[in-house]
Specification:
30% of the residues lie in helices and 24% in strands. The chain is an alpha+beta fold. The radius of gyration is 17 Å and the shape is globular.
C-alpha cells in the first residue's frame, strides 16, 4: 500500500478582512519557499496543466488580495485560496483553504496535499520538512491546531470521538497555547515551543507509516497522554 500524506491547520470564529488573509497567505508561502524547491512558484488552477502553468501567482499582498477577492473565491464571509506548485503534471503539490470566517461551526483551514511517490515526495515526506510546514502554518495562520500525517492513519483511527480536527494525533502536531500545556512525552518524540503561539510535536524522525507497528504503538501512547492532558478535543471559537 502506498500511503498518501497531508498537512493542515484549523481554527474557528476569527473574522478577518480579505487584506489580513492575504497577509497571512503571503507569510505562509514565503515560509514554505525554503522547504522545497518547487514551492517558490504557485499557480491558479486552469482547464489544462499547460494553461495553469501560465497562471503563476505573485507572492505579495496586493496580488493575493485580488486573488482572494475574486467572485469564484468568495463565499459568505470567507475567502478561499486553491493553489498548486510543480514542474510537471505528475508531481504537483496543492494548497487549499479558506480564511476570514466568523463561523463557530465551520472551521477555517489551510491544507497542503503532498505527494506520495516521486522525487518531490521523497524530499517532502520527511520529518524536517513536514515539521517545517506545520511550523509555517502555526506562525502565519495562528490556528488552534495543526497536523501532518498519512490519510491511512487518519482513517484508521477516525472513529467516534477521534473524528474531528484536534482530537487525534499524527506524525506532526501543533497545539495553540490556550489549549493547555503539553505533558512529558516519550522518546523519540520531539517537542518545540513557538513563542506566543503554541507547541509543535513530531512523533518520530523516521517516515511515519501505518505499516510500522512501532510507529502505530508510539502514536497510541502519545494519543493517550495528550488525551489525559486535555489537549485532544474538538475546536472551540477563537479566544474562548
Amino acid at each position: 500500500m502506498i500511503e498518501t500524506y497531508y498537512a493542515g491547520c484549523y481554527w474557528l470564529a476569527r473574522p478577518e478582512p480579505v487584506e489580513a488573509c492575504a497577509q497571512r497567505l503571503e507569510e505562509f508561502l514565503r515560509q514554505m519557499e525554503p522547504l522545497e524547491p518547487t514551492w517558490n512558484r504557485w499557480h491558479e488552477a486552469a482547464a489544462t496543466f499547460e494553461k495553469a502553468r501560465q497562471r503563476q501567482v505573485s507572492v505579495n499582498v496586493a496580488t493575493l488580495t485580488k486573488l482572494l477577492s475574486k467572485k469564484s473565491n468568495r463565499f459568505r464571509d470567507w475567502s478561499s485560496f486553491p493553489l498548486w506548485a510543480g514542474e510537471n503534471e505528475e508531481e504537483t503539490s496543492g494548497i487549499n483553504g479558506n480564511c476570514g470566517s466568523a463561523s463557530s461551526r465551520m472551521a477555517s483551514v489551510c491544507v497542503l496535499n503532498a505527494l506520495s511517490t516521486g522525487q518531490v515526495a521523497e524530499r517532502v515526506l520527511t520529518a524536517p520538512v513536514l515539521t517545517g510546514v506545520v511550523r509555517a502554518m502555526a506562525l502565519a495562520w495562528e490556528p488552534e491546531v495543526g497536523i501532518a500525517t498519512s490519510h491511512a492513519y487518519r482513517e484508521q483511527i477516525k472513529v467516534g470521538q477521534f473524528s474531528e480536527p484536534g482530537s487525534f494525533v499524527g506524525w506532526v502536531m501543533y497545539f495553540a497555547d490556550f489549549r493547555g500545556p503539553v505533558p512529558p512525552l516519550p522518546a523519540p518524540v520531539q517537542v518545540e515551543h513557538l513563542e506566543n503561539r503554541g507547541t509543535l510535536i513530531t512523533l518520530t524522525p523516521e517516515k511515519f507509516t501505518v505499516s510500522n507497528p512501532a510507529h502505530v504503538a508510539l502514536a497510541a501512547d502519545v494519543q493517550a497522554r495528550l488525551q489525559d492532558a486535555g489537549l485532544l478535543r474538538p475546536l472551540r471559537p477563537w479566544g474562548t
